[in-house]
């Protein structure tokens, strides 16, 4: 079985390491050029890993570039895995591997198709989220499901905590599916379209705290966009205050506090950046 991998983030690299640790070989890796997406959350470089494991590495501006399609075919890839990659694979890429293309999405599909899955799960105050391994189709996160893992969400869950759980779930899903890929016993099931939802992309500006809103919403936003995301913020006295951790309190105490109509946000970790 010949495996190709497409990624540019830590979630993907963790899966690549899992594949090699399980005794399987990677026959091709594809990533973006070094100068692209340097500020992307979780951005990693694959060069050292590929040198260590003797994996051919191709860097492309877009997964649908002719060079990517040609490389997949030239290396006779059976299964291509695309993980942590925001570009949508076109028909040529999907048809280039002999067996198919797999992806992982950090929600319980068909819920939460689209972007910014970790922040949205917290912002929507879901009781649980999860990670879905699925076969890519010509839609966005619409392909048949291979396997899922559930992640309960408590009231204090933040993006750092959830990102780590999602990373661990990626590894577990990849480890569990490798024997099925090798044996040709994969049996994906169709998604239930009646339950499908789509979440939109988020921008750094979406981390702006609404000072006219509620303190509970502000605290939730801080948890949702803390590291590895750009962070929640307020602009005050010529500075941008990037808030990484905070809690709701009844009375202010020494340190940075942000007052709302219904309470006070005590900021326990933050950066002050001149505007």
Protein described:
This protein is α/β, with parallel strands linked by helices and 275 residues long. It has 2 domains: 3-199, 3-Layer(aba) Sandwich (Rossmann fold), CATH 3.40.50; 204-274, Methionyl-tRNA Fmet Formyltransferase, Chain A, domain 2. 27% of the residues lie in helices and 27% in strands. The chain contains 7 helices and 13 strands. It has helices at residues 10-21, 47-53, 66-74, 91-95, 117-123, 159-183, 215-224, and strands spanning 3-6, 26-31, 57-59, 79-82, 100-105, 113-114, 128-135, 145-152, 198-199, 232-236, 239-249, 257-260, 263-274. The strands form 3 sheets. A 7-stranded mixed beta sheet has the order 3-2-1-4-5-7-8, sandwiched between helices. Helix 1 links the parallel strand 1 and strand 2. Helix 1 packs parallel to helix 6 (159-183) and helix 5 runs antiparallel to helix 7. The protein is elongated and about 65 Å long. It starts with a strand and ends with a strand. The model has no long low-confidence stretch (mean pLDDT 96).
Write a concise keyword list for the protein shown above.
Methionyl-tRNA Fmet Formyltransferase, Chain A, domain 2; alpha/beta; 7-stranded mixed beta sheet; 27% helix; elongated; Rossmann fold; single chain; 27% strand; 7 helices
Please bin the fraction of helical residues.
25-40%
Q: What is the ordering of alpha helices and beta strands?
A: EHEHEHEHEEHEEHEHEEEE
Main β-sheet, in a few words? 7 strands, mixed
Q: β content, as a range? A: 25-35%
The total strand number stands at: 13
Give the rounded overall mean pLDDT: 96
Low-pLDDT residue intervals, each spanning 5 or more residues: none
CATH superfamily of the largest domain: Formyl transferase, N-terminal domain
Rg calculated over all Cα atoms: 21 Å
CATH class of the largest domain: Alpha Beta
* CATH fold label of the largest domain: Rossmann fold
Number of domains: 2
Structural class: alpha/beta
Name the strands of the widest sheet in spatial order.
3-2-1-4-5-7-8
Distance between the termini: 54 Å
Q: Tell me the quaternary state.
A: single chain
- Which architecture of the largest domain does the CATH hierarchy give at level 2? 3-Layer(aba) Sandwich
Number of helices: 7
Shape: elongated
């Amino acid at each position: 079985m010949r495996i190709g991998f497409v990624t540019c983030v830590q979630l993907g690299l963790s899966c690549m390491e899992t594949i090699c640790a399980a005794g399987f070989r990677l026959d091709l890796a594809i990533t973006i050029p070094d100068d692209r997406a340097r500020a992307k959350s979780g951005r990693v470089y694959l060069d050292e890993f590929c040198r260590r494991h003797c994996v051919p590495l191709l860097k492309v501006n877009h997964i649908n570039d002719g060079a990517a399609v040609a490389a997949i075919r030239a290396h006779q890839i059976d299964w291509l895995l695309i993980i942590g990659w925001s570009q949508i694979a076109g028909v040529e890429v999907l048809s280039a591997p002999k067996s198919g293309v797999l992806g992982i999405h950090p929600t319980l599909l068909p819920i939460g198709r689209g972007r910014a899955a970790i922040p949205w799960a917290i912002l929507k105050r879901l009781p649980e989220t999860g990670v879905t391994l699925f076969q890519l189709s010509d839609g966005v996160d619409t392909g048949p499901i291979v396997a899922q893992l559930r992640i309960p969400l408590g009231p204090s869950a933040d993006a750092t905590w959830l990102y780590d759980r999602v990373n661990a779930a990626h590894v577990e899903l990849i480890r569990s599916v490798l024997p099925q890929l090798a044996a040709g016993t994969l049996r994906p099931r169709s998604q239930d379209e009646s339950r499908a939802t789509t979440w939109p992309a988020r921008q750094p500006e979406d981390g702006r705290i609404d000072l006219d809103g509620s303190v509970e919403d502000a605290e939730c936003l801080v948890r949702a966009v803390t590291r590895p995301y750009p962070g929640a913020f307020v602009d005050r006295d010529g500075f941008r205050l990037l808030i990484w951790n905070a809690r709701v309190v009844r009375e202010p105490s020494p340190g940075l506090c942000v007052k709302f109509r219904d309470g006070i946000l005590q900021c326990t970790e933050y950066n002050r950046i001149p505007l």
